[in-house]
Structure formats: structure tokens, C-alpha cells
């Protein structure tokens, strides 16, 4: 069952450099708030992706179970299924700027990413500590900055397009807080999205975070501990990383799952607790962290949810938002099976087929 947990309570641009003249020029160009300048229109499908999302680092990315090419694989499958016709149909985000990151992150944390040892700990790839930081910036942190920019752009698209939904084919870095990264999460895209929405002037006063990744979302929970304008529903395997007891104080409705929870129990608890949370909080925006590390066989999530269970989960979340006219942005978060990309693509196609993605034919 679900239960309530109540809370008790000058920028250095060189840190963004990738180490080459061409890349440094790109970093210089990224000095302004370019993400906010991309126009939102009803004529585009509110799916956010660009090829730079992929982490490619001389094969070192294979030392972590995370599928570094997941977004690209999903994108190709959506094209194959006819949901996306051309690259111009979707949104391609800009790399998030240092100025934008400092809206949440501390300068001390951003500076810490200049050291490969610190990044190696966050990425959980020990050999990165021996790699010059300029290459770490270009091959790991820059793709993550594009994905973070994608989360902000997707949130804007869900809010401003009039369509009521958007999906970022990346992001969901829920272990990162303002001053600490971890669990392959170097930037706090969820906290950044919350702050952007709250300051948008669009009347977003009650944000519901629905975190259905298999792991507790301790990063943004630490950031939003005192913010009563945010309601956190977090459904996770309580016996795995991060087991952050302090961060749990921010959760308004916790659903703690045992290892090997199956579809029937999982979906029953989700449907009850999400409906309860929406009725109680009456949100006017939903951030959906849709991790697929809940799949059976995932080496880190240790739950037993089938692909069909993931499809039904996503359908219920989207239907719950659409029926109440609540804008929703979906972030992909974790998922450590190679089959995860196909499951996600199939789920998005199912949303289209069930008329839960307005304007997508």
C-alpha cells in the first residue's frame, strides 16, 4: 500500500569546455538562454531528441549497464512505426547553458565536474578518473547537458503547445541534486524543470512528480524538501540504491516495493496511489519520471514487471493526466536492459493508438 511521508522541514565557463577550439566556440555560443528561445508550436510532435544525446567514449560507456544509445534507438523505432516522419517533426534541444545550470546548481558543484575523479564517481565508471577532463566533458557531460536541456524544452512544450503532453527521449536524472551527483546523474534536470515551470508566469502552482523509476528519486527530493508547491509520489524498490532516508522526508506519498514485485501488485498500487495523489493535491502540471528499470531481468531494478506491464503503466499515467486536462512531461530515466528501448517505443506507439497523444495520427 502507499503511505504518506511528510517533510519536517561569477560563473566559470571553462567548466563547460570540451577541450577543442571548435567545441569551445560552441560553448561560447551557448552562453545565453538558448533553450528558452526555441519556439513552441502545435505543428510539431512534442517529442524531444537529438543525436548528441548518445554517450560515446571509446567503449568505456559499456562498463556501466546503462544503454547510452537508448534515446537514439527509441527514435529510430518511432520512425519505423511511422509516428515520426522526418527529423523536423520533433524538437531538437540546445545544450543547457552554464547560466541555466546555476539557477539550481552551486558553483562549487559545477566546478567539481572539472575533475575526472568526481565525474567517474557520478557515472559509476571508475576508469574515467584516468581520462583527461576535456574528453570527459565532450563525451559524457555534454550529452547529459543536451538531455538536460531536452527536459526543460519538453516541459515547455507540454505547457505551451496546447497539446498537453511532451516526451524527452532522455533525461530523468533523479539522483542529482543542486550540490551532488550520483547514479549516472550529473545534472538535476527535474529540479531545474520544476524551478523553470514555477517561474514561467503560466500559473503553475502545484506540480506533481510521479517517479516510477525502480530507484528512489533522492536528488530532486533533497532539493525540494521544503517546497509545498510540489507533491512527490515515488514508487521504488526500497531494498536497492540509494536508500536515502533524509530524502524520504520530501516524499508526500511513498510506495515502497519489495524485490520481484509483479505486474498485478505493481499496477494495483500505482492506480490506487496515483488517483489518490491527484485527487488530494489537484496538480496543474505532472512530471512523469518513467524509468524502465522496473522490467524483469533488469540488473539494477530487481523488479519483475513485464513489457506489457510497462505499457499499461504508461497508459494509465497519461490517461489520468489527459482526462483531467493536466499537462504532462515524460522523462525516460533509468533502464538497463538492451530491450528497454523497444519497450519504450512500443509504449509510445500504444499511447498514440489509444488517442492519448493528441495530434499524433
From TrEMBL:
The keyword 4Fe-4S does not apply. Residues 7-19 have a biased composition (Low complexity). Residues 1-33 are annotated as: Disordered. InterPro entries: HDAC_classIV (IPR044150), HDACs (IPR000286), His_deacetylse_dom (IPR023801), His_deacetylse_dom_sf (IPR037138), Ureohydrolase_dom_sf (IPR023696). The keyword Zinc does not apply. It catalyses: N(6)-acetyl-L-lysyl-[histone] + H2O = L-lysyl-[histone] + acetate. It is found in: Nucleus. Its EC number is 3.5.1.98. One of its GO terms (molecular function) is histone deacetylase activity, hydrolytic mechanism. Keywords: Chromatin regulator, Hydrolase, Nucleus, Repressor, Transcription, Transcription regulation. GO terms for biological process: epigenetic regulation of gene expression. Residues 64-349 form the Histone deacetylase domain. It holds the Pfam family Hist_deacetyl. It comes from the Eukaryota. GO terms for cellular component: histone deacetylase complex. Residues 20-29 have a biased composition (Acidic residues). Responsible for the deacetylation of lysine residues on the N-terminal part of the core histones (H2A, H2B, H3 and H4). Histone deacetylation gives a tag for epigenetic repression and plays an important role in transcriptional regulation, cell cycle progression and developmental events. Histone deacetylases act via the formation of large multiprotein complexes. Interacts with HDAC6. Belongs to the histone deacetylase family. This is Histone deacetylase 11.
